[in-house]
Amino acid sequence: MKFEKKSLKFLEKYLNTSSPTGYEHKGQEVWMDYIRPYVDKVEVDHYGTCYGIINPEAEFKVVIEAHADEISWYVNYITDDGLIYVIRNGGSDQAIAPSKIVHIHGEKGIVKGVFGWPAIHTRTNQNEPVPKIENIFIDCGATTKKEVEELGIFVGCMITYPDEFFEMNNRYFVCRALDNRIGGFMIAEVARLLKENKKSIPFGLYITNSVQEEVGLYGADMIADTIKPNIAIVTDVTHDTTTPMIEKKKEGDQKCGEGPVVFFAPSVHHTIRELIIDTAKAKEIPYQRAAASRATGTDTDAFAHSNGGVPSALISLPLRYMHTTVEMVSKEDVRNVIELIYETVLRIQPEMKLKYH
C-alpha cells in the first residue's frame, strides 16, 4: 500500500498544527475536514473529542481510536524582570528544553520565545546543573513583567514547540507529536480505504480521535460512555527499545521497521487480540508482541474499563525518542498498522463470541 499524495499532505498539515492537551481544537478541525468525505456523520463532544461514524444507525458499535493531544507547557510564573517559568501539560521533558524555540500562545496571538540556559563558560568549576522544572525558563525578549503581559502573555497561556514534519532517508517520518497524531492519521486512512474500496460493514464504525490522553486518558473515558461501543481497537505509539540507554529487560524488545506491536495486558481482551494476530498471519502483515503489567497506559484501559467492560485491544506503532521534538516512526510500520486495522475491521462480525466463558 502506497501513501496517497492527499494523505501525506493531510499528515504534514495535521502534524504541523499545534494541538496541546486541553486545546486540541485546531488540530481536530484539520482532522475532521479530512475524514468528513469518508464517513456518514461527524460528531464532537463537549471537550473536543471528534469521531466520524460509518453506519450510525447500527446497534452493534466498533471503535477504532487514537488520541489527538500533544505535550506542552503552561506559563506558571512571570518574574519582575520578564522571565517565564513553566509547569508541564502532559509528560513534557525538561531535559530537552534548554535552547529550544517555543511558541507562547498568548491572548494577542503567538509570541516566540526560547528556553534559555547558562553558557558552558559560566558553568566551570561547579557542579554541572541539570535541567529541572525549577530552573528552566523562557525568555521572550521582554525586560519586565509588564512588558510580558503587554505581549498578551499571562499565567495559564499554553506553550508548544514549533518543530515541523519531515521525512528522513525515505524511511522515517519525523516530527514532534507523532505521539499520537500519527494514530489519528492511521485511523483516518482506514476510513478512507473503506470508502474508496467500497467496503460494507455490518456494524457501526466509530473512528474516534480523543483528547486529553496525555494527562489521564480523560477524553477516551468520556467518549466511551457516550458511544457505548461493543468493541474498541486502540492505536498508540510504543518505544523502539533498540536505541541507546533503554533497558530491554524492562521495556521489552520492539523495533521500528519490524511491524505493528500487539499488546498483551489485563485490559486487552483475548478474543479481539487473537483476531488481530490471526488477521496479521492471514494477510502476511509483520507484527511484534509486547506485554504490559497492570495497565497499558493508553486509552485502551479507559475503553476496556468503561460501561461494565468493553472488549478492547491495542495495536501500537514503534517510535523512537518519545516526548521529544524529533519523534521518529518507520513509514513501513505506519503502512502496516493501517493495513492491520483495516483488515481486522473487515473480519469483525456482530455475532462474535466475546465472553470468555
UniProtKB/TrEMBL annotation:
Coiled coil: none annotated. Gene3D superfamilies: Peptidase M42, domain 2, Zn peptidases. GO terms for molecular function: aminopeptidase activity; metal ion binding. Keywords: Aminopeptidase, Hydrolase, Metal-binding, Protease. SUPFAM superfamilies: Aminopeptidase/glucanase lid domain, Zn-dependent exopeptidases. Zn(2+) 1 binds at residues 67, 179, 236. The active site is at 213 (proton acceptor). Zn(2+) 2 binds at residues 179, 214, 323. PANTHER family: AMINOPEPTIDASE, AMINOPEPTIDASE YPDE-RELATED. This is Putative aminopeptidase FrvX. It comes from Chryseobacterium defluvii.
